[in-house]
Specification:
It contains six helices and no strands. The chain is mainly α and about 180 residues long. The protein has one domain. The chain is elongated, with a radius of gyration of 21 Å.
Length: about 180
């Protein structure tokens, strides 16, 4: 309540009243879609792209890996980095209705995914650029990506649950 006995109008109150979604609700849905896309790409990389590194001969690997690095800019890097950074910030940009524990889990998965990328996967790609198609390096790259894929999957499931839970709550309130 405000000083005059008037109920305080919060983001959650506006959302329940059926007004336009807040920027935080739009960000939540957008982040959910981007995280699902990034998760799908991560599993494709795990199942197809990285295993193909083993099929490229030593003489052709440098050119192949260079082309791979150039080709992933738009489908992987441009959506992926902002997605994991936004997940890492989710605790602070979440809608009011999102529980702190759920937001903290999304944030943790984003931060862990970003750290795995910056400090494990990227250095392995740099190593492949230097030494070529080394089996141990490719195996380590697959391990790093598996952890990223699992973290992104957990994040996608949690964000999807948050969105669905909110939409169910909105429908129940509209029925009343």
């Amino acid at each position: 309540m405000l000083d005059g006995g008037t109920p305080e109008i919060t983001e959650a109150t506006r959302a329940r009243a059926g007004t336009r979604p807040t920027w935080r609700e739009v960000a939540l849905v957008t982040l959910t879609v981007l995280t699902a896309y990034t998760t799908a790409i991560s599993w494709q990389v795990q199942a197809v792209s990285y295993p193909l590194f083993r099929a490229v001969g030593s003489n052709d690997f440098a050119a192949y890996h260079q082309q791979y690095n150039e080709d992933i800019l738009w489908p992987v890097l441009i959506p992926g980095f902002p997605t994991v950074i936004a997940c890492g910030l989710f605790f602070w940009i979440r809608p009011d209705r999102v529980a702190r524990l759920a937001a903290a889990a999304v944030t943790a998965s984003g931060i862990i995914t970003l750290l795995l990328t910056l400090f494990w996967a990227i250095p392995l790609h740099d190593r492949l650029d230097l030494i070529g198609p080394d089996a141990a390096t490719i195996d380590s790259l697959l391990q790093a990506n598996l952890l990223r894929s699992v973290m992104l999957t957990a994040c996608t499931v949690l964000l999807g649950w948050i969105v669905l839970r909110g939409s169910r709550q909105d429908r129940r309130e509209l029925a009343i």
